[in-house]
Amino acid sequence: MSDPGNALSLDEEIAAVTQRLGQAAVGRPLTADEAGSLSAILRAAAEALRQGHAFINRLAEHVAEERKTENVEEFFEDVIKTD
Fold it and tell me: What is the residue range of 20's domain?
């Protein structure tokens, strides 16, 4: 069991998960842009989870349904706007 005094903040957890997930998914460390994008997605998912079980389920269903008809880039093209 971990010591509650050493618990990571949500942002620290997201940063750690981002690096581990990126390494597992693509077999290398993520670029700064990739890590930033994945962190933003994880933050949004954490916020959706805070909003309640039904909201995170709807979000997951929406993503899964969209993935059936378009690739990842197409799906996020209208969701994530770059400056």
Answer: 10-77
Average pLDDT of the residues of the chain: 82
Nearest to 15 by CA among 31, 35, 29, 34: 35
DSSP codes joined into one string, 11-61: HHHHHHHHHHHHHHHHSSPPPHHHHHHHHHHHHHHHHHHHH-HHHHHHHHH
- pLDDT tens profile 32-57: 999 999 999 899 888 888 887 788 88
Does 83 map to a domain?
no
Query: Cα–Cα distance between 25 and 29 in angstroms, integer?
Result: 10
The answer to whether residue 82 is domain-embedded is no
The answer to whether residue 43 sits within a structural domain is yes
Average pLDDT of the segment spanning 53-69: 81
DSSP one-letter code for 7 = P
Number of domains in the chain: 1
